[in-house]
Amino acid sequence: MSHxxxxxxxQQLLCQDDQLxxxxxxxxxxxxxxxxxxxxxxxxxLLFTDGSIVPRTELxxxxxxxxxSSALPTFV
Length: 76
Hints:
Blueprint: H1 3-12, H2 16-36, E1 39-40, E2 45-47, E3 53-55, H3 56-62, H4 65-71
Antiparallel strand pairs: 1-2, 2-3
């Protein structure tokens, strides 16, 4: 049995409120794992699935440098 199967089986044992908490708490980690593949450190850009490219300078407008540096250490 795979880890995904075990996780899905475990999730079915939880009440709906606990399932939502589990989904919400794990979203950021899953998102960061997915986004990590989209960073181009040589050009300091982020590539989105629609093909748009966002340079680091635009990301710094959205995120403070302190938060940006702690969340994305290889991108700094």
